[in-house]
């Protein structure tokens, strides 16, 4: 067990707020701690914006503590108002159950199942008697205090349903149940979860006379755009490869803003801090390659990360092809001599003899969502065929544009697909 896991998290930037730094340090240094993070299955995939608490969980697990991965099969039917300007769409129980299973599978790539507990809060909420819950749990909460929570105050301006108002109490009860069942003593979550987490620590104290703790992590913002971390031109960057291809996932990390590289390497790789600093000082582009490789290997596999790295290198070049900058990352073992254009994400299409209207080709390649979006991309100078900019929205791609039956199509400089004719 690491001597001080809290200091490790703090040094890597994971700590935003906590209930008691001294008490949490002592707890994590002196005993094996059961701790939890909750994930509501509002979709069938997580995206990279969900990953910060996951990486913190992973580091604590590697330090010898036991994560409780809680999927909110019950709370997902309500939706957390935290950080939301309007109510979530209410999903059917069947959809929530399906999403919960999908998310569990994704999280098992980050959290070893050998030393973890996976649980669904539907286990204790599905058969809950409403009057019993109101009397035994609702009576412990002050509405006046709940109204001071940031997640509630923000929503009072736009409208907050009684359904959503209950969410804080349900999350607090989760902490109580996990404490009772597994001896859970620590909850972690995003910055917007502070009110929900402290409601849980207070409920456990009142019902079980135990001191438990909470940690929140900072909100990640892209330095250049000011957007929440995890967004790309096409929307959220998903862990599900059917929603975001492995190559596009790799490219998201590879295109990180220079100002964010060190911070993201500390969060999303296991490289030691001094190594991160050394690599960033030597070559920021090599640091981006390592960040992209490590993040992709964790979400998918080392093999798929290597293929994405080789594909990107074949098209855009390598930052350190000869591995002259020492690194403990497995990227150093990848043979860059195997970099070929065939590793690029590939789409097969049927090309009529008279050719295919280029906006339609962009849509079929998955680079644009509609013909209108494709036309705007072309008119803005962002569409390329075999490295030639296409500026005419009425351009038709002919069979002669596909030597050897393939071509490279790009939307912008780095969103790229290889098109193969069937």
Write down how many β-strands occur, each being a DSSP E stretch of 2 or more residues: 15
Low-confidence stretches: 83-87
Widest sheet: strand order?
Answer: 1-6-5-2-3-4
- The percent of residues in helical segments reads 40-55%
Would you tell me the overall average pLDDT? 89
Overall morphology: globular
The end-to-end span amounts to: 55 Å
Largest sheet: 6 strands, mixed
Word description of this protein:
By secondary structure, the protein is of the alpha/beta class. The protein contains 18 helices and 15 strands. The protein has helices at 5-11, 21-30, 51-62, 93-107, 122-125, 130-136, 143-146, 150-156, 162-165, 167-182, 194-208, 246-254, 261-268, 273-282, 284-299, 302-316, 358-364, 371-379, and strands at 17-18, 34-39, 66-71, 117-120, 186-190, 213-217, 231-232, 235-236, 346-349, 356-357, 383-385, 388-389, 396-397, 406-411, 415-421. The strands form four sheets. Strands 1-6-5-2-3-4 form a six-stranded mixed β-sheet, sandwiched between helices. A five-stranded mixed β-sheet has the order 9-15-14-11-12. Helix 11 (194-208) links the parallel strand 5 and strand 6. The longest helix has 16 residues, at 167-182. The N and C termini lie far apart (55 Å). Mean pLDDT is 89; it is low at 83-87.
């Amino acid at each position: 067990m690491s001597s001080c896991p809290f200091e490790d998290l703090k040094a890597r930037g994971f700590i935003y707020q906590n209930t008691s730094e001294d008490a949490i340090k002592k707890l994590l240094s002196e005993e094996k701690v059961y701790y939890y993070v909750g994930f509501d299955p509002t979709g069938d995939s997580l995206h990279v914006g969900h990953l910060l608490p996951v990486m913190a969980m992973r580091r604590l697990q590697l330090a010898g503590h036991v994560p409780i991965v809680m999927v909110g099969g019950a709370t997902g039917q309500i939706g957390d108002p935290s950080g939301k300007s309007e109510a979530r769409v209410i999903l059917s129980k069947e959809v929530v159950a399906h999403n919960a299973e999908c998310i569990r599978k994704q999280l098992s790539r980050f959290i070893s199942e050998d030393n973890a507990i996976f649980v669904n809060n539907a286990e204790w909420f599905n058969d809950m008697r409403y009057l019993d819950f109101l009397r035994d749990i609702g009576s412990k909460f002050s509405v006046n205090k709940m109204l001071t929570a940031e997640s509630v105050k923000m929503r009072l301006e736009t409208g907050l349903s009684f359904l959503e108002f209950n969410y804080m109490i349900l999350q607090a009860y989760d902490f109580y149940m996990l404490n009772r069942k597994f001896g859970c003593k620590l909850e972690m979550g995003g910055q917007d979860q502070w009110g929900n987490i402290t409601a849980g620590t207070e409920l456990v104290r009142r019902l079980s006379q135990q001191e438990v703790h909470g940690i929140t992590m900072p909100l990640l913002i892209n330095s250049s755009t000011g957007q929440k971390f995890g967004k790309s031109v096409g929307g959220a960057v998903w862990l599900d490869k059917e929603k975001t291809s492995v190559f596009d996932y790799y490219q998201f990390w590879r295109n990180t803003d220079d100002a964010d590289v060190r911070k993201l390497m500390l969060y999303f790789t296991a490289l030691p801090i001094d190594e991160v600093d050394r690599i960033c000082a030597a070559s920021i582009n090599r640091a981006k390659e390592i960040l992209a490789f490590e993040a992709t290997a964790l979400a998918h596999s080392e093999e798929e990360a290597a293929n994405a790295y080789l594909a990107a290198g074949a098209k855009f070049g390598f930052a350190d092809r000869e591995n002259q900058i020492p690194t403990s990352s497995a990227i150093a073992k990848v043979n860059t001599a195997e970099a070929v254009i065939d590793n690029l994400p590939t789409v097969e299409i049927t090309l009529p003899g008279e050719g295919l209207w280029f906006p339609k080709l962009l849509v079929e390649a998955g680079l644009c969502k509609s013909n209108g979006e494709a036309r705007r991309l072309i008119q803005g100078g962002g569409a390329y065929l075999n490295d030639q900019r296409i500026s005419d929205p009425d351009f038709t791609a002919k069979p002669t544009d596909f030597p050897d039956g393939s071509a490279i199509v790009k939307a912008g400089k780095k969103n790229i697909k290889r098109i193969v004719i069937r």
